[in-house]
Amino acid sequence: MRSTLRFVLSSALLASAVAAFASDVAPGLPAPKLDVKTWYKGKAVKSFKANKTYVVEFWATWCGPCRESIPHLTEMAKKNKDVTFVGVSIWEDDKGGNIKKFVSDMGAKMDYNVGYSGNKTGMSKTWMEAAGQNGIPTAFVVKNKKVLWIGHPMEMEKPLAEIKSGKFNLAKFKTEFSKQAAVAKAEMASRAEVSAVDKMIKEGKYAEASAKLDALEKKTPSLKPMLANQRFVLLSKQDPTAWEARVKELSASTKQEDKDVVCIYALEQAESKGDMDRAKFAIETALGSAGEGDAMVYYYAATYFDMLNEPKKALELMDKAIAALPKSSMKDSEPAKKAMAQIRAEFAKKVK
User: Fold this and answer.
1) Are 13 and 68 in contact (CB under 8 A)?
2) Second label for 149, Cα 20 to 30 Å away, from 64, 127, 129, 268?
3) Is 2 within a domain?
4) How many structural domains does the chain have?
5) Is residue 3 part of a domain?
6) What is the CATH number of the domain that holds 197?
7) In the chain, pLDDT over 90 holds for what percent of residues?
């Protein structure tokens, strides 16, 4: 969903998706069945054949890092004609021609087999969830009907070459993959509890939600950034005046994670058609405090106005985001530059 944009651009864009371990799908185990509801490009791939190598990559139209990895996958597909590449859209609804249009707009940049499997159904369950994967893009390399490698597609070139040549060290990769299991599984379990907090807030159980947040932060400190977003939402419900003061305080902070809390709140409200008055106050306050290096604030604001179907404003702010990049913490990130340029191009099309 687009409310995860902080992780989509500044984290997932610049690093691999978090790997986790699950007993159902893991390196060395049989690959699950392909379950593609609709094919939008290339040929329908219905099953895996023995002695054949496949790349199955999961993506979504809203995912910034996916836009970055798609051309790379196309290049790899051209270099590895003996490998069948399959891109599968998940974690979004296929309605109004959104996926078909995205694939069409990508044109030659997305030149492999592309289909759709469902939002939280189909392969999002049997592949991603079963393998403990909670970030996209994520790629699976399958050979002889077995999963051999799982990871970010931008890191796939070397392992794919080794798998094709028979030099891939599966045992070593399984060990590396499993090392992350304990922490990742604990975090995923905690994320389910985080969802429970959202439910409490929606039901007006504010004291209960606050107590749960304290317990979660003590139990899993790594969830603190996500919990900060929930505390912010909770404050907006419990004490609107204090919330407005907090918006101003966080917006004026020199820490990116503080600014993120304000901007992500605005995006979540816009996405859910929630409290639009507070969303407007949050994004305008963030913009009012933005400095010349606040690329992410301008990016969030551009996305916010894109959600409101205000393409001119979105494009104007996207230009500011790109202009701020050289003075931001992402100044040396080529993936960030490319992703923002691609998103700007999409916004520009809407203005025309």
Assistant:
1) yes
2) 64
3) no
4) 2
5) no
6) 1.25.40
7) 67
